[in-house]
Amino acid sequence: MSRSAPPPTTAAPAATTAPTAAELLDFVRRTAADTELVASLPLDPQGRTWVRLDGPGGSEAWLIGWPPGSGTGWHDHDESVGAFATAAGELTEHALAVRLPASGWRTLELAEGLDRTRRLVPGRGRSFGRHHVHEVLNTSKVAHAVSVHAYYPPLPLLRRFSRSGAVLRLEQVERPEDWQ
User: In which domain, by residue range, is 102 found?
Assistant: First the structure.
């Protein structure tokens, strides 16, 4: 169950009405408060673990366990809107307050003042729009963290970036078939 790649995705049933970012945030907060569900997630000391959940309106949802010192690296969720909330432990999100071009670039120099950092303790969450670039980290040296994530539409792809100072470089584009 532990892997370095993002969780695999499967086709979700068609939704009659797409859930909004606010509805996804409400879902992840309510789900993160389900102590029985959170306690049922097997935790691995070496890598992230996850369980697929039924998200609202055909969204893709996950319960994710984060061992100490783990993180996602810089990435975005393409055209999906999303939300996540911490259920146990603490997560840190580093994000960019700018919408990046959807395509046509490999390297960008970022302007000053775009960096945002959020600490997400249990019960705290956030929603985000399309092309939101961020990294999520469990900076604890000793404690696991657990979180709930939801995306709509289900992730069509994930762009991974490297960052050196103000330079953001597109490194890889992953599609759901790459996660199988």
Answer: 21-179
pLDDT tens string 121-134 = 999 999 999 889 99
Which pTM value belongs to this model? 0.86
> Is residue 151 exposed (0-12), middle (13-18) or buried (19+ Cβ within 10 Å)?
buried
Strand 60-66 vs strand 145-152: parallel, antiparallel, or unpaired?
antiparallel
d(CA 55, CA 53): 6
Domain containing residue 173: CATH number: 2.60.120.10
- Stated as kind and residue range, the H or E segment containing 26 is helix 21-32
Cα separation, 87 vs 89, whole angstroms: 7
Residues 12-52: tens digit of each pLDDT: 445 468 999 999 999 999 999 999 999 999 999 999 999 99
